[in-house]
Specification:
By secondary structure, the chain is of the alpha/beta class. Helices cover 46% and strands 23% of the residues. It folds into two domains: 3-88, Winged helix-like DNA-binding domain superfamily/Winged helix DNA-binding domain (Arc Repressor Mutant, subunit A, Orthogonal Bundle), CATH 1.10.10; 92-295, D-Maltodextrin-Binding Protein, domain 2 (3-Layer(aba) Sandwich), CATH 3.40.190.290.
Length: 298
């Protein structure tokens, strides 16, 4: 039994003729007749009485017709629901981002939502390694990460697109002796006390180890770290884009200072997404919005 056979039953009952039903269905009369015969054999009943006066339903055929209509209506309802689900899913984006992008992403979401009010967004903050490990498992549509191209090329089932570069910097408060500097060197950072965000990328942790920094606090509360930096002589590592429009940076309470060794240190920013997911217009629009914000970064 298949759905086509049920459609034939409904059409024949309506037209009271196999030939008329076949014409409506745009298939051959013999094809419809054979399908009905196969169904009757399978069910071991006669669905129709065939006579020169036309075709009528048997008592058992009345039951088959009733259930056929019910099944076909349920099938149509299922298709409609799946279509609605697909449309709704296309207007929902699940995004993961590394801490570097957290403050920037808030501005992106504001601008994006203003012109895409029908799109819902779910935002998760994780470290880059966690994001890549969870990309498919957590069903993320896309993610913003800090990584090298070589690191991303090692991953399977992953597509990636370059966004921009960001200089590695420190952020200090007015009370820090480093505040007056335009850039800092290894000597400036050696043996200094620092605070760190829990999901700091591995490069920041490597810098802390390289410069023999004492980590006095690790937290996932951004504002707690900011207040400690403002009030004390500690600093933390950030990218040049991270606090671009942060109020305390704009007011001068905090200062973002690039690190310079032989040259300024920079890292690459990428957008990544599962290769199994299509890049819809909704996601493309969001990606463009992120790029516009990052390109405006110093």
């Amino acid at each position: 039994m298949n759905f086509e056979q049920l459609e034939y039953v409904v059409s024949i009952a309506k037209e009271k003729s196999i030939s008329k039903a076949a014409k409506k269905l745009h298939i051959s009369t013999s094809g419809v007749s054979q399908a009905i015969t196969q169904l009757e054999r399978e069910l071991e009943i006669n669905i129709f009485n065939r006579s020169r006066g036309g075709i009528t339903l048997t008592l058992q055929g009345e039951l088959v017709l009733s259930r056929s209509i019910e099944i076909l209506n349920n099938l149509k309802e299922l298709k409609d629901q799946l279509s609605d689900f697909k449309d709704t899913r296309g207007k929902h984006i699940k995004i993961a981002c590394a801490p570097t992008f957290t403050y920037t992403i808030h501005n992106v979401l504001k601008d994006y939502s203003d012109i895409n009010s029908n799109v819902t967004i779910e935002l998760i903050e994780q470290g880059t390694n966690q994001i890549i490990n969870n990309l498919t498992k957590e069903d993320y549509d896309l993610a913003l990460v800090v990584a090298t191209k070589a690191e991303l090329e090692k991953e399977h089932n992953l597509n990636f697109e370059y966004l921009s570069k960001g200089n590695v910097c420190i952020v200090v408060g007015k009370g820090s002796p480093l505040y007056k500097l335009d850039y800092v060197t290894a000597n400036d950072l050696l043996n200094q006390k620092i605070v760190m965000y829990n999901f700091s990328n591995k490069n920041f942790l490597q810098l802390a180890k390289k410069f023999k920094n004492e980590i006095v606090l690790k937290s996932n509360r951004t504002m707690t770290l900011i207040e400690i930096i403002k009030e004390g002589r500690v600093f933390t590592y950030v990218h040049s884009t991270t606090l671009k429009n942060f109020p305390e940076v704009i007011s001068g309470e905090l200062k973002v200072i690039p690190i310079k060794e032989a040259d300024f240190i920079s890292q690459d920013f990428w957008i990544v997404f599962p290769s199994t997911k299509e890049n819809t217009f909704t996601k493309s629009d969001f990606i463009n919005c992120v790029k516009n914000h990052l390109e405006g970064s110093p």
